[in-house]
Amino acid sequence: MLNEIRGLHHVTSMAADARENNRFFTDTLGLRRVKKTVNFDAPDVYHLYYGDEVGTPGSVMTYFPFPNIRRGRPGTGEVGKTVFAVPQGALPFWKERFQKMGVSGLKEEELFGEKRLHFAGPDGDGFALVETSDDDRQPWTGNGVGDDVAIRGFHSAAMRLRDDGATGELLKFMGYSEIEARDGVKRFAIDGGNGAHRIDIETMPNIAHADQGAGSVHHIAFAVDNRDSQLAVRKALMDTGYQVTPVIDRDYFWAIYFRTPGGVLFEVATNEPGFERDEDRAHLGEALKLPRQHAHLRPYLENTLQKIDGAAGAAA
């Protein structure tokens, strides 16, 4: 069993409109845009990162906004819901805020003894807020969201699978333990994790496979401290039979990828070097940053990428 993984690092999804996506995460959710860059494999598409002040691993939601992409069809073999942690008693604030801002898909429920508020993103993305009482992570505040209610980072990610057996065993190999099961959902967690250390699996054997598009999660990334830890994880996964990519430099972290038995794409990303490697903390997410191999495209990209209104998100 691995002991290098700390919990989630980031969650990456797809969107249809960069401006609308940016507005939702900075204005509606009150997160900070910590990086504005481009997709390594499709440089004419943004890669936008949102999180806390510095993009702490476990807080970062990222997006590829593909112009005119069709909306995804929910199903199995995907992350169906990304869940954020908020302080105890914060849900009434968020429900009222979402109602005033026209956010759709609002539904309150309780799962594993935790109160949660479900809501949808601009492309039908599945999200929820969960009240937690023991999360001491420091939030980004602003746009009318105070410290007493602000998002702390991820709480969990929930996968929809036709069969949970093989993926459950994989999570256990990665250092997770099954801690609870209720109403068709199994919860896995890492003891002493980074706050974003829970994975829920909902087994849905009669549901068709998801068809990815706008609003779909492209992959979820798990955090390790450094490159040595990442190499240890890679070797262990390959020794177990998984096909794992070589280490890829993503400028703000190093990444490896592999496909899980349930069909979900997993990444293992390093906590180093972080988002301050090419911008100072006060101005994270403001300038368009390009990977070295795409630097020569700057004049073209600055003229063709959709202009994003507003700043990266202002602190209160």
From TrEMBL:
Gene3D superfamilies according to UniProt: 2,3-Dihydroxybiphenyl 1,2-Dioxygenase, domain 1
Alphabetized GO MF terms: dioxygenase activity
Keywords: Dioxygenase, Oxidoreductase
Domain VOC intervals: 7-132, 153-271
Domain of life: Bacteria
Protein name, UniProt field: Ring-cleaving dioxygenase
Annotated source species: Georhizobium profundi
